[in-house]
Specification:
Blueprint (H helix, E strand, L loop, with lengths): L1 E5 L5 H10 L3 E5 L3 H9 L3 E2 L3 H7 L2 E4 L4 H9 L4 H4 L5 E4 L5 H12 L4 E4 L2 E2 L1 H7 L2 E6 L2 H12 L2 E8 L3 H29 L4 H8 L7 H12 L8 H17 L5 H15 L10 H9 L5
Parallel strand pairs: 1-2, 1-4, 2-3, 4-5, 5-6, 8-9
Antiparallel strand pairs: 7-8
The protein binds nicotinamide-adenine-dinucleotide.
Length: 293
């Protein structure tokens, strides 16, 4: 397949490389020329614009920061929609607002182009080894056409519902992860101030009910004080803003998400927005005047 790929950042670049490894031709575009060159070096084709990607590819994948970036890559002058024709498809793998996904699907459908929202979880290491989890929203028949393509990047691909359902699932994931990291910071702070080594607490409880993938992946970073990303706080703030807008839009109260959001906002105000989201534990260190390392 000729697969267009727009957005070759932390996640997009290794995902595009996994598509190439499976034998497809990637037509690559990003604002950063160096990222395109890496894909070309691995056998890909450089495009000069989103429009060229749309013209040359039968399916276009986007992996960009947020809704406005996807809108711009698809619909601005020179964007992919100008090159797309009837029967082609856009698969947006960015984590964006579900209402924006539905809007993009409608606008593409007017020119006969299909759309799937297919955000991912797993982070950079899993993007590199092709084991991300993909949650897909869209029409069953369109999904069936591209399921194998999605599996070249992922160990799990799940169709969860119609367009927008992928991003609603991703928001649920991001709410659970944020609140979990905050719980780790809070509980480890209690242990530290009460005179028990937080690392021993982790070893003792990780196999019990409190254990989780978040606990296993983030505790080590917290104990090392190593908050290099990973997943940046500024991107998690974007996800929680989308989660709060969506939950308020459907009349659901999300108090824990709001608290986690304010903690991250306060870290951003202190210049920590580019730290890994495990840096939520830094906030507990600051307000409690302690160190978890
Ligand atoms: P990133 O900032 O590293 O990459 C985004 C890329 O898009 C950049 O290379 C940028 O130059 C490019 N770009 C932006 N607008 C463009 C446009 N209009 N045309 C062409 N290129 C454009 O971001 P990332 O970490 O790869 O994340 C991408 C998405 O995946 C986000 O929605 C994020 O929330 C989600 N996500 C990230 C992770 C993670 O661990 N980093 C994990 C799961 C999901």
């Amino acid at each position: 397949m000729n697969v267009g790929f727009i957005g070759l950042g932390i996640m997009g670049k290794p995902m595009a490389k996994n598509i190439q490894k499976a034998g497809h031709t990637v037509i690559a575009y990003d604002h950063h020329r160096e990222s395109i060159e890496e894909i070309v070096a691995a056998g890909g084709v450089a495009a000069e614009s989103g429009r060229e990607v749309g013209e040359r590819a039968e399916v276009v994948i986007t992996m960009l920061q947020n809704s406005p970036n996807v809108e711009s890559a698809l619909f601005d002058e020179g964007g992919a929609a100008e090159g797309l024709t009837k029967g082609k498809c856009v698969i947006d793998m960015s984590s964006i607002a579900p209402l924006a996904s539905r809007d993009f699907a409608k606008r593409l459908s007017a020119i006969g182009v299909d759309f799937l929202d297919a955000p991912v979880s797993g982070g950079e290491p899993k993007a590199i080894d092709g084991t991300i989890a993909v949650m897909v929203g869209g029409d069953e028949n369109v999904y069936a056409r591209y399921e194998q393509l999605l599996k070249t990047m992922a160990s799990s691909v799940t169709l969860v519902g119609g367009v927008g359902a992928g991003n609603i699932t991703k928001l649920a994931n991001q709410m659970i992860v944020a609140v979990n990291i905050a719980a780790l910071g809070e509980a480890y702070s209690l242990a530290k101030k009460a005179g028990v080594d937080p690392e021993r607490v982790y070893e003792a409880i990780r196999g019990g009910l409190a254990g989780s993938t978040v606990m296993d992946q983030k505790s080590e970073k917290i104990f090392k004080g190593d908050f290099t990303p990973g997943f940046r706080i500024e991107l998690h703030i974007k996800d929680l803003q989308n989660a709060l807008d969506t939950s308020h839009g459907v009349n659901v109260a999300s108090p824990f998400t709001s608290l986690a959001m304010e903690i991250m906002q306060s870290l951003k105000a202190g210049g920590h927005e580019r730290d890994d989201h495990s840096g939520i534990a830094e906030w507990y260190e600051m307000v409690n005047d302690l160190k978890l390392q």
